[in-house]
Write a structure and sequence with these properties.
single chain, alpha+beta, 10 strands
Length: 234
């Protein structure tokens, strides 16, 4: 039988017959051309399982697209920001905490949201001019309902990527309970893992980083945070 011969399978015995036979060469039954044609048509159509797999793939692609869109969609955070005097008070309180650590003494200070955000505004104003790399676009904090929130916005080329980290006091520490990448919520361990990858800025703020490393008590109120530092608290 040549490669171009057309064949039809007998419905009675299953024998494969070459056209133009009308009856099966093995059992003699009349070949059902209409049934064979319907079988060929059905073979070219997707099955129910194929449609389910295709629907799943489309849903997965749409879900991934939504996640990426939410992550790169810049968020924002309302906060209270003070003036130059507030920034000065923040620097003074921070220096008192650092001096206490330098002298191996415990110390505590109550910092206000207005003071910290005024200081953050000065950091933004005094940073080097934006180059081709990442540029800090915004930074701030908010204290409310027994929790502290930190917000960072970074300009990377045409994109503005925002991060919001949410922490609550637990024992003597501030513990991350969630985060937000753009508008994408990251609760629990996802938020902690994401916050760990965004810690470069904090490590650049040496005094603040040192204060958090030696934190031995914390209390968050409406618009305020009280910090207790003890040398070698870790």
């Amino acid at each position: 039988m040549g490669n171009n011969d057309m064949t039809i399978r007998c419905q009675q015995c299953g024998e494969l017959n070459s056209l133009p036979l009308v009856h099966c060469k093995k059992c003699g039954a009349k070949l059902d051309f209409e049934a064979a044609e319907q079988q060929i048509l059905r073979a070219g159509q997707p099955t129910a399982a194929d449609r389910v797999r295709m629907s799943f793939k489309i849903a997965l692609v749409l879900a991934l697209f939504a996640v990426v869109l939410l992550a790169i969609w810049p968020g924002g955070m309302t906060r209270t920001t003070g003036d130059e005097m507030d920034a000065r008070r923040y620097r003074m309180k921070g220096e008192l905490l650092i001096n206490a650590l330098n002298n191996d003494l415990p110390a505590s200070q109550v910092l206000t949201e207005a003071e910290m955000n005024a200081y953050c505004r000065e950091l933004l104003a005094n940073q080097p001019a934006a180059g081709k790399g990442a540029h800090l676009d915004d930074i701030g904090v908010r204290f409310m309902g027994g929790r502290a929130e930190a917000f960072v916005s970074v300009q990377r080329g045409p994109f503005t990527l925002t991060t919001q980290v949410i922490a609550k006091p637990k024992g003597s520490r501030l513990v991350v309970i969630g985060a937000r990448a753009g508008h994408l919520p990251l609760p629990g361990i996802l938020g902690r893992l994401y916050a760990a990858t965004r810690g470069n800025l904090l490590r650049q703020l040496k005094n603040e980083s040192r204060i958090l490393r030696n934190l031995d008590g914390v209390s968050v109120g409406e618009g305020t945070i009280e910090l207790l530092v003890t040398p070698n608290a870790l």
